[in-house]
Amino acid sequence: MYNIKFSSYVPTPTPATPDRIVAAHYYAAWKKGAAGIHEGFNDLAKEFPDRTPLMGYYDEENPEVCDWEIKWASEHGINCFIHCWYRKPEYVGKPVKVENLRCGHGLHEALFNAKFQKFMKFAIMYEASPRWGGTDERDIVENLMPFWMETYFKRENYLIIDNKPVLFVYNQRRLANECFKSAESQREAFDACREYAKGFGFDGMIFAVCNCTVPVDESHDDYMKRGYDFRFGYNSGYISPEDYYSDEDDIIDKQCEIFKKNLEADNTAFIPTASCFCDASPRFTQRWNDLGYNFRSYANIWYLSPERYKDLLKRMKEISDSLPENAWARKMIMIDNWNEWDEGHFVAPSHKFGYKYLQAIREALTSCDNLPDYITPHDHGFSGYNTSWETPDFKEFCEKQLMVSD
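RE: above sequence
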């Protein structure tokens, strides 16, 4: 059956049914030249071929690629992608345009033109790190909100809870230190955004802040004073700087312990993020050092096998299900991460792991009421998803791997 085309397009997804929002963080950096700080798949091809996506290296702006991702994700219970959203800093204080975004192709070129987008909710995580554009009391209402409303929030598949669009925020520290004058002014700005949303038929806005560090101490109260509704993590918060390849029981216990400690501050206002592994080895290179990064100084390499990742997901679900009915963790769990190929945490199908992490998610978080399709795009007869990357032809790559295994 190898390379025989069974259909003219990506087969229609048959989604599994989870009992909550299962949201995977999504880093859309896999269009050539889009990332700006790394060379995408070109950085991985020679030294890290095991990180080759199962469809081969791909042009992420291609809607057909996005349809494969929607199919794989939805058939294993992931029903929302949280896209990192970057505004280039030189455009702060100006009306937002698509061409002024970093990595905006994942939404504007791919998802919004995907045939199967109705199967996948999406949300944006506003990146306010120093490298990217910040905001202030006026800019967020006059420039960001109009763009977000017209371009994202009004779409049928944007993540809406209780008739409120959900906005995730990364790097509150910068917003506090550089952008808003005070906690009160930030809350007032968020409340102005809520009123703005009501003008379009919504019942307000939900703001979520990325912070899962412990101990939480007074920081949680500060976040709530600033107008946030709940906290989350881009990852679980677990690191093991000295213990490479730590014991899997310990990794699971530590991630759950971090979850529980965050709940101590407020057991209704924190949601868990389950991390599968952490291995940023592709960034331990001289080129990254030349750019001013020293990832080795905080390297933390550890792996959960897919089977133990399933155990982690079940543990986090059990903890969540024990919380009060109004707890955010009863509504949502996050997956770390769909496609951080070089930073080293991904559940998307890969040459190294196949579909195993996705199978763990399906078995832990859904009723398994579907039959996923495990025929790869290449075996379906689809190819040509890489027209940009200076990498080996995928068919040639597969043949080499077969020779190695023989």
